[in-house]
Design goal:
mainly alpha, single chain, 125 residues, flat
Length: 125
């Protein structure tokens, strides 16, 4: 029996280890043992910038489609703009609740604390 025939019948696990396994059993114990020997790479990063970059790419793609296609796509772009405004309000409210000042928020946004107070008014009690 050739190696290809053995792989198709399931008598020898893929990878050619020579271990005989019944059909349907692909040597999961062998795979686990091999996986355990490799060190796992851990990625240390903040995912917010990655998500933001993806959202920017998608938003630009919607704009390009609207520019050369159906004017109805412009309505979709407006939905994205509304969602961004809602996200900004949510973020500012959350930062204020956690004790951040309008001056700190404004510094990050590149505006004055008065501009933050005007653009994102505090809810009246």
């Amino acid at each position: 029996m050739s190696r290809d025939d053995q792989s198709r019948t399931g008598k020898i696990a893929k990878g050619g280890s020579g271990t005989v396994h019944p059909p349907g059993d692909h040597g999961s114990a062998d795979k686990a043992a091999l996986s355990a020997k490799r060190p796992r790479k851990t990625r240390s990063y903040r995912e917010t910038p990655d998500i933001s970059a993806a959202a920017c790419r998608l938003t630009l793609a919607i704009g390009k489609r609207a520019a050369c296609g159906d004017p109805e796509d412009l309505a979709e772009l407006t939905k994205v703009a509304d969602a961004v405004q809602t996200a900004l309000r949510t973020a500012v409210e959350g930062l204020r609740e956690s004790g951040r000042s309008d001056a700190e928020i404004g510094r990050v946004l590149g505006v004055t604390k008065q501009a933050v107070a005007q653009r994102f008014p505090r809810p009246s009690l």
